[in-house]
Specification:
By secondary structure, the chain is of the alpha+beta class. Helices cover about 60% and strands about 15% of the residues. A 7-stranded mixed β-sheet has the order 2-1-3-7-6-5-4, with helices on both faces. The longest helix has about 70 residues. It is rod-shaped, with a radius of gyration of 35 Å.
């Protein structure tokens, strides 16, 4: 567990967890605490839930790391859930961040979202940000970090999609189906966790109407940023689907060409075979017999039929 508080513009680390509730009572302090749900010490969560008066349903949702982005209001705190996206082994995985937000404190339960939390702490320390609206200022920075992360994922997917488009246009029947499906999978995951974050921001914008103008502008900026990402994802989804349709169309055309050739040669072979079977079963044709003329006539008819079919199929570009 990591806990710290800001007082007089300076951040201090909390060494005694039992002092958190006392620090929160002092309105000159701004308290931040975070716990990784993958490594919670025994008895810590019930104790913190009691000290911060956290609603039991919210605590249950925070521990189960498969929640959709959402915001819920409780009597003495807000409960906000959103996701950090991680690119691991060519997969896009989500790490949940659940925040309990009071007037002057935030308690975050996360499932391996260390990167976003570390970046938020860095901004708080290095930028010496003004926290005129208490915990809302901290929440804005954390949401800004996560949405910036979404933008980075979307930009990398856009670059990959454009590369796949160039390959598909330059190479007939390019073997890029696996990469295309991987991009579609990442877009689906981004759409699942990033775009519903508006469920958090829209009601949060209503909640911050009592905050300062600067804080409201910051939250609206995040909302606008998320809208731009949503539009970018929709455009990428259309583009990668067009690339997939192009690859599938080329594969279908290649299969059609093979089918045409096989059909053409089958017809060319079938006609002489049919003629030979009819005449061979009904007439006694031998090259050294009395019907030698008929033998060569049938042979010529077989060759002529095959040649005529070859000419027809060649003219139709089947061969």
């Amino acid at each position: 567990m990591l806990a710290m508080y800001q007082r007089d513009g300076h951040w201090n680390t909390v060494t005694d967890i039992d002092s958190l509730s006392d620090l929160c009572l002092d309105h000159n302090n701004l308290v931040w605490a975070e716990v990784d749900t993958n490594d919670i010490p025994d008895g810590l969560l019930p104790k913190l839930a009691e000290e911060f008066s956290l609603h039991e349903l919210a605590v249950e949702d925070a521990v189960h790391a498969r929640q959709r982005p959402k915001l819920e209001r409780y009597p003495n705190h807000l409960f906000v859930v959103f996701q950090q996206l991680n690119e691991e082994d060519d997969q896009l995985e989500a790490s949940q961040i659940a925040c309990f937000i009071g007037d002057r404190w935030i308690f975050a339960l996360h499932s391996g979202a260390d990167r976003s939390l570390a970046e938020a702490r860095r901004r708080w320390n290095e930028d010496e940000m003004e926290v005129t609206d208490g915990a809302l200022s901290l929440l804005h920075t954390l949401l800004d970090v996560v949405v910036d992360d979404y933008q980075g994922v979307a930009d990398r997917l856009e670059a990959t999609t454009e590369d796949l488009e160039e390959i598909a246009l330059a190479t007939f029947n390019a073997p890029i189906q696996r990469q295309v499906y991987q991009v579609k999978q990442h877009l689906a995951r981004l759409r699942r966790y990033a775009l519903p974050a508006s469920r958090v921001l829209d009601p949060l914008l209503d909640h911050v109407e009592t905050a300062s103008d600067e804080t409201r502008h910051y939250f609206r900026d995040i909302s606008d940023h998320l809208s731009r990402i949503s539009e970018q994802v929709r455009q990428l989804d259309d583009l990668i689907q067009a690339v997939l349709d192009l690859v599938r169309g080329e594969q279908s055309n290649a299969l059609n060409e093979v089918t045409k050739k096989l059909t053409s040669w089958a017809a060319i072979i079938a006609v002489p075979t049919f003629i030979a079977s009819v005449y061979g079963m009904n007439l006694h044709l031998l090259p050294d017999g009395p019907d030698i003329i008929n033998f060569y006539f049938v042979l010529g008819m077989m060759g002529g039929a095959a040649g005529w079919l070859y000419f027809v199929f060649k003219k139709k570009h089947w061969l």
